[in-house]
Amino acid sequence: RRRVREASQQLTEIINSCLGSEPSTESLEPGGDMDLAAEEESASHCLWVDKFAPRRYMELLSDDYTNRCLLKWLKLWDTVVFGKDKAVKKGKASSAAHPPFSHAKEHPNKWKTKVQLTEEILEAELDQHKRPKYKVALLCGPPGLGKTTLAHVIARHAGYNAVEMNASDDRSPEVFKTRLEAATQMKSVLGANEKPNCLIIDEIDGAPAASINVLLNIINRKDVVGEAASGGGRRQRREGGLLLRPIICICNDQ
What we know:
13 helices, 9% strand, single chain, alpha/beta
């Protein structure tokens, strides 16, 4: 055990010396992330899986298509969260000159691949509140695949403050609802430059059915103003407002 510890310590010193000899150009660039530099500096005495974990989008080793899909879905929230207009793609000019065949009109999804269908879902129009059609993203896979790391890196890359909660820890639906609303609705008063939250719910497959119903009720809430005009606004005000922040759920068993 002593020899293994000494060998591990020597290997750690070798890796630190190799990393320390390389000039860090990214930290010298204007507008560099100071929090990333602080994390790397404080990671000198932590586990290897934490020390060498990816902290930027380009450092991810997970499936590239999954990474792009999750980032594209998260960027759909920019209109309602950051007030940015959604980028509109220009249509191809050749589509008018070459109309599709008749059988393609009858079965529009027959010959499309899973990738094309997913791209169409992500490029769908926003709802009346400028939110994407699907309010929650679900990452599923075996342990150690990098789901939580992917969620944190994507959220930080898109300009959010990643807030993580474990659904299996909060067994009470009341506690689950309180933490859910605190992360998705309450705004920080610490400063004007505070980043908006992106809620990451880990182990959602371990949550009880009552907590899942709480999550569904928050997702399916109607507009408070519209309900008040029709006479049902009192109940909606007690329940809370619309969901205006993205939620990423993670599970092992889909």
